[in-house]
Amino acid sequence: MLSPALVLLVGVAYLAGLFVIAWLSDRQAARGGHAFINSPVVYTLSLAVYCTAWTFYGAVGSAVRNGLEFLTIYIGPTIVFLGWWIVLRKIVRICKGQQITSIADFLSARYGKSATVSVVVTLMAVTAITPYIALQLKGIATAFEALVYADDSFAVLRPQIGIWADTGLWVAIVMGVFVVLFGTRTLAADESHPGVVTAIAFESVVKLVALMLIGVFAVLALGPGDPGEPSAELAAALARLTAISEGGEARWAVVTFLSAAAIICLPRQFQIMAVENRNERHLATAAWLFPLYLLLISLFVVPIAAAGLTMLPATADPDLYVLWVPIAAGREELALFAFIGGLSAGTSMVIVSSIALSIMISNHLALPLLLSGRLGGRMPQDLSRAILIVRRLSIAGILALGYVYYRTATGGGALASIGLISFAGVAQFLPALLGAIFWHAANRHGAIAGLATGFVVWAYTLVLPSLPVPALEPLLVDGPFGIAALAPTALFGATGWDPLVHATFWSLLANTAAFVLVSVSTRTNPIGQLQGAIFVDVFRRPAADGEPVLPRSASVEDLRRVAERILGPDRTRQVFDSEAQMQGRPGRDPLPDAHFITRVERALASGIGAASARLMVSRIVKGAPLTVDTVMALLDETRAAIRYSQELERKSAELEETAEKLKEANETLQRLDQMKDDFLSRVSHELRTPMTSIRSFAELLSEAETLDTPHSRRFIHIVKQESQRLTRLLDEILDLSAMESGQIAWHLEPVELRDLLRGSVDTMMSLAERRGVAVDLDLPARAVWVNADPDRLKQVFLNLLSNAIKFADTPEPRVLARIEKRAGEAVVEVIDNGPGVSPALRDSLFSKFGRDWLNNAGDRGGSGLGLAICRQIAERLGGTITLAETSAAGSCFRLSLPLQHVEGRVSAEQPAAVGAVAARPSLAVK
Amino acid sequence: MDPDRSRAPFWTEMRWLVAVLAAILMLPPVLPLLDRPVTVFGLPLLPVYLFAVWAVAIALCAIASRHALRASGKPDGPG
Questions:
Q1: pLDDT digits (tens, 9 = 90+) for A816-863
Q2: pLDDT of residue A699
Q3: By CB neighbour count within 10 A (0-12 exposed, 13-18 middle, 19+ buried), where does A587 fall?
Q4: Cβ neighbours around A582 below 10 Å, total
Q5: How far apart are CA B62 and CA A827, in angstroms?
Q6: Which residue in A86, A230, A249 is closest to B28 by CB distance?
Q7: Assuming Cys at both sites, which of A530, A599, A706, A892 could form a disulfide with A884, CB separation 3.0 to 4.6 Å?
Q8: Of A822, A667, A102, A827, which is closest to residue A426 (Cα–Cα)?
Q9: Chain B, nearest residue to A541 by Cα
């Protein structure tokens, strides 16, 4: 075994190094160099203060006793951090805005700045954490003894030592000095301690490296490159270590839940995560980096445990395997490193816990007593020094309490069970904490009721049975006064439950029930309503608006006097100068408006807690007494501001959308306008051509008397033809525009399509014969009825047929007209084997404003408006007309109309059907 | 539009999925199903499974929070 002097020397050297790191880091921060401490990695590493000596030594012991259950201690925090933006970010944001100094301050500030809440939380925290601090002292002391006094069979032969030779005492004293030096040097604005945080981050690296080193060593010692064939002994050890114990599922869920609650509610975690947080963005990195740290530190627990089970005698304490596995393999320097790792894990927890608890004790227990004068004596004018002294005394008190607990009470319990009792204790904060940030109706009475109930049930069901007092035995078995239903470990007949599951279930059930029921059945005082709105709506409030402040007034002199008493002259000057700067009056006193009073109160709160700060400020302010009406008006204002900003956001999104639509509409209009211009110029051109020829021939006729009869006849014929063309063109334009503007009377009636198409083909027969085009008809056997204006519909048929005949200029021109019924529609198709429609024309074929319509149509004797009219008619009749196919082998125009289901020709006399269609809004008006 | 900005909502949704799935996959109703004497590369199944889920969740969360940090510029608003 190792010599005591060597182990002591290394331990002391390590702690001295810690002092140097903290001192250097504090000095750097004082000079304004925050680069190192402002990194999210340092923030994450300091969060790893979660991993204590319990983790370092106890995880292996827990694996040996309960299999994989040790992982739940890390899985809970992992889940909370993976969901960091739900709870953690909100807490951090509130803490930064309100200058919160501890979890007790947080809850007290939320619940109406209630002093009672902060006192209850402080007492609960001290009760729950003292055994936990004792656990760390015990862990370090036990490790020291294990290294120094263990014999060859790994039994610790501890000599009877006096108190002055006890490692635990010296660790407690050194830690006390450290915390006093670096935790209470000054009263910082935001209760942050850069030196401490850096030292904690360093310790986190040391313990992780130490544990991983032992782990790698254990893996190498276990199986030298032959994982396929583990020995029977190793296989048995692995099977034991990697199972979930019988009935362990409930414990698994409960411990995961407790550790998830602990990562938020433990005072030291709250201190590091929220109070010491320097930048909210660090949380986004810690969200994955901290779970990664937890994964790495738990990765080698099973190998170390397996190595211990195979290499060490069965009597050896599994909580000490981390130290003894290297010793059993003859590597004492590794064991020494493991001891340093455990020392770092234990000391970091003690340091941060005692800072957090001392802030709570001094702000919420000692200072209120001091300020109220109940402690007697004259109050000093400058309280800032007194506050620091109170803090230092609190630290000494906490460590002394922890040490006493360690000397008297931690006889037998394994590391893990003590830690879990603490976890279950701080988990009692969870209902009040979640209610504080998510539930408007949660109030002071509910919080106090819930916290107190949970605390009592926790103490009764978990702490009491764990005390090594034989006199309690009958109470535990039979219940108080022999009432079995009240037995601490089997409340209401819940026998056979695991004690931890039992206590967690009942305490949190009672806690939550009391919190919710009392909250909903009592009235919230005005300040509680105000604070509730500030906390719950922290993300909904627009950043620029700030928070609602109470309308108050006070004199600058009074404010300065109060601030100087608590903060000291330097900090006071800082606060006043920066406010004057913000108010735009540098060099003068700031105006004591409501905002400034709130700011001063918050600065005071950072030194003495929200409840005491409120008390001090309320003594000097004037203003209307705080009534429900005042606060409601204030809250309404805030709500209105929130609503207004949301409304603005929505409006601006709407505006953007409208602007986009307008832009589109404008583009369409411009395109249409362009088309209209084109159309007008082409129509004018087209009208001019016949007009010009009419005029010139008319002039010829009138001027030349000598014109012979055949010539003049021919001229007159041309004039007649051209006027007819002109008339036709004008007719069609008028027709189209009349149709578009809905001025044409439509005579809708049931029409039999076969007859109509047959008639149309007959009409076109003479033209077809003249052109040598063969026209075929393909008609169904049964009648096809549609509701239409027969004249207009015939116009469509004639137009399609005449186009087909006119454009059919192939050697054997053919045109096929046919009717089909398809899916409730009558489909009329006119198919030719002409040259097809040129691609440039297809898009604008049915448009009267189409680009090239005249070039193509005019020379065939049409106006080029025929298809545009066809489309108008088809749409007016509720159908469509399309160019279904076109290619060099021919084209197919398709007219689809909705079928009308009528029984024979009787329907022709049904005016209702006609009326129904006529009542539809005109499609042409779009 | 910047491609990273358009992908940010996807990762905003993903981080819910990661946190909820990690919680479900590492808690009892699922876990006992994997507590059986099977080995993966000579290692027991249950711890291999747990560490694998853990590592994947960390990786996904890392990607999601990178996107969150880049998209926000500064962390603001409820999101």
A1: 888 988 888 889 999 888 777 777 777 777 776 554 444 444 444 555
A2: 85
A3: exposed
A4: 13
A5: 61
A6: A249
A7: A892
A8: A102
A9: B77
Do A750 and A734 share a domain, yes or no?
no
Cβ <8 Å between B28 and A250 = yes
Mean pLDDT rounded to a whole number for chain A: 81
Residue with tokens 């007219």, as numbered in its chain: A895
Residues A57 and A16 in one domain: yes
Domain end marker among A563, A596, A626: A626
Q: CA nearest A281 in B: which residue?
A: B75
pLDDT-wise least confident of A124-128, A227-231, A582-586: A227-231
Which parts of A635-728 are beta strand (E)?
none
Domain end residue (candidates: A738, A764, A798) = A738
> Cα-flanking dihedrals φ and ψ of residue A381, to 5°?
-70, -40
Please give the Cα distance from A658 to A653 (Å, whole number): 9
Q: Rounding to the nearest 10 degrees, give the CA dihedral for residues A639, A643, A648, A649.
A: 110
Average pLDDT over every residue of A514-523: 93
User: Quick check: B23 and A79 CB within 8 A?
Assistant: yes
8 Å CB contact between A830 and A893: yes
Q: Which domain holds residue A688?
A: 637-738
Query: Mind listing the pLDDT tens digit for each residue in A683-700?
Result: 787 788 888 888 888 888
ipTM field: 0.86
The H or E element spanning position A526 is helix A526-536
Contact at CB, B46 and A243, closer than 8 angstroms: yes
Same structural domain for residues A730 and A758?
no
> Is the same domain home to A84 and A192?
yes
Q: How crowded is residue A821: how many other Cβ atoms within 10 Å of its Cβ?
A: 13
- As a whole-number percent, the residues of chain A with pLDDT over 90 amount to 19
How many domains would you assign to chain A? Answer: 4
Is residue A591 domain-shared with residue A720, that is, in the same domain? no
pLDDT, tens digit (0-9, with 9 covering 90-100), for A631-664: 667 667 666 777 777 788 888 889 989 999 999 9
- Whether residue A695 is contained in a domain is answered as yes
**What is the structure's pLDDT at A419?**
83
Rounded to the nearest 10°, the torsion over CA A81, A85, A89, A93 is 170
Contact A917, A861 (CB under 8 A): no
Same structural domain, A701 and A817:
no
Structure tokens at A795: 């116009």
Q: What is the predicted pLDDT for the residue at A344? A: 92
CA B34 to the chain's CA centroid: 19
Worst-scoring range by mean pLDDT, A198-202, A705-709, A710-714, A830-834? A705-709
A59 and A178 in a single domain? The answer is yes
Mean pLDDT of A880-892: 84
How confident is the model over A620-638, as a mean pLDDT? 67
CA of A75, closest CA in chain B: separation in Å?
8
Name the minimum distance, in Å, from the CA of B62 to any CA of chain A.
Answer: 5
The answer to whether residue A365 neighbours chain B at the CB level (below 8 Å) is: no
pTM, to two decimals:
0.70
Nearest-CB residue to A543 (from B35, B59, B76): B76
The dihedral sign for the CA sequence A822, A828, A834, A839: negative
Pairwise CA distance, residues A143 & A8, whole Å:
12
Most confident option among A565-579, A905-919, B42-56:
B42-56
Task: State the virtual CA torsion across A430, A435, A438, A442 in degrees, nearest 10.
Answer: -170
What does the buried/exposed string (b/e) look like for A632-655 if buried means 16 or more CB atoms within 10 Å of the residue's CB?
eebbeebeebbeeeeeeeeeeeee
CB-based contacts of A801: which residues, under 8 Å, 6+ apart?
A760, A761, A764, A775, A815, A817, A830
Measured at the alpha carbon of residue A473, what is the angle toward residues A467 and A474, in degrees to the nearest 5?
145
Lowest-confidence pick of A62-71, A420-429, A540-549 = A540-549
What's the gap in Å between the CA of B61 and the closest CA on chain A? 6
Q: Do the domain assignments include residue A293?
A: yes
